[in-house]
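Continuing from the previous page of notes. For each protein in this section, the sequence appears first, followed by its C-alpha cells. Read the first protein now.
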Amino acid sequence: MHWEYLDENRKLIFYVFRFDLSDGIKEILPLTLWQNKKTGALEWRWKAYPAPRPLYNLHCLAGHPDRPVVVVEGEKAADAAAKLFPDHVITTSPGGCQAAGKTDWMPLKGRDVIVWPDADDPGIKYRDDVARLAHAAGAASVKILSIREGKPTGWDAADALAEGWTPE
C-alpha cells in the first residue's frame, strides 16, 4: 500500500509505503524527493521527510476548515476512519507512534480534535503525545475515544471497518 502526502493545494510532498512481509511483520518507509548535492538532480530516496513533517490529508484540513478532526495512528487507519467519520477530516502524523513530536500540528489550531488511539501501549503513548501537541497548537478542544474492551492488541479504525462498523 502507499499513501500520498499532499500540501494545502494538493501538491505532492512525499509518499509513505507499507510492505506487509511474509512473516507477519510490516515495514513502513517514506519515499521523498531530494536534491543530489553533487549533480543538483532531484532524486527519490527511501528517507524520512525532514521535521517538522506535514500532517496526512493536509489538503482536506485546508479545504474543510469548519469540520472536526479525527487523529489516528497511521495512514491505513486514517483511510478507514474517513469511511466511519464522513463529516470529519481524518489525519495522522508520518513516522508512526514515535514521531508525533516531529510533526507540524499547527493546522489543528482552532479545531475540535478527537484522538482515536490504537489498543496497545504505543497507541496510548501516541494518544497522549497527540493530545498534548494538539493543545499546544491551539486546538479548540481535544477529546479522546476510549479503547474498546476486549479488542486485540493493536486494534484500530481499520479493524473496526473490517469488523463491519459503519458511520451509524
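Done with the first. The second protein uses the same format. Note its length before scrolling.
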Amino acid sequence: GFYSKHALKVRTKAGEVKNFKLNPVQERFQKEVDDQRKRTGRVRKIILKGRQQGFSTYVSGRMYSRLSQRKAKKGLVVAHKADSSRALFDIYQRYHTLCPPLLKPETKYSSRKELMFSRLDTALMVATAGGDGIARGETLSDMHLSELAFWPSGSAAENLHGLLQCLPSAPDTEAYIESTANGFNLFKEMWDAAVSGESDWEPFFAAWFETPEYREAVPEGFERTLEEEDLVALYDLDNEQLVWRRRRIADGGRMKFMQEYP
C-alpha cells in the first residue's frame, strides 16, 4: 500500500494518470497474498474475477516493485492475445517511466517485449499464449498468467506446463493466474483443484458487487423484481447496484453477465 501510493502511477477508467491507491478488492486480495507468503514463504494465487476489477493493475504493480528493487530476478507476463500483452506491458512502462528517481532502476534496454534493469541484472518479459516455447529454459522468480480461460485450447495445457517448469518452488517466488470465466477448460480445472485444496494454488474469488463503481442512478418508479429481492437478501445489494446489473444484462444477456460479472 505504501509503495503503491508513493511510487506507482496508474491510468484511471476516466483516463487520468494518478497515484495507485488500492481499491477494496485489491486490499482484500493483498491481505490474502501477504497471509500466504507468511505461511508458505511464496505466493501461488489463482483468481476468478469480474471484468475491470483491477487485478492486472495490482499484480503488475507488485511485480514491478519486486523486480525493480531486487537483483538477479526474472519476471514473465503471459496474456491470451497480442493486444492484451501490449496493454499489460504498457502498464509496466508507465510504472517505470513515472517512477520517482530515488526508486527507479537504471534501464539497460527496453523493447516491446522486455524491460531490463542493468545494475540489478533483473528483467521482465512479456509474451502471448500460443507461441512456441515461451520462456523455455528460463528460471523465473515472478509470473503473471492473464486470462488463462481464453488461451488457445490446443496449446494451453502444454504452454502452462512448460511455464510452471520454469518456476522453482523456492521461497520468495510469486505466481498469479487470473481470469474471467469462459466455460469448461484448463482454467476451470485449475480453479476446481485449488478450491478443493488439491494443489499449491490458493483461490481468490471477486464478486462484481465488491467493485464500488459498479452502480447507476436509480430511475423514478424503480421496483425490484423477486429475483432482485433475493439478491438483496443474500448479498446486501442496494438499488444503484441492481440498476447497474439490469443495464449490463440488457446490454449482453444474462449468461454473458454471469460469466463476465460473477
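What the second structure shows: The longest helix spans residues 24-40. The mean pLDDT is 89. We return to this in next week's lecture.
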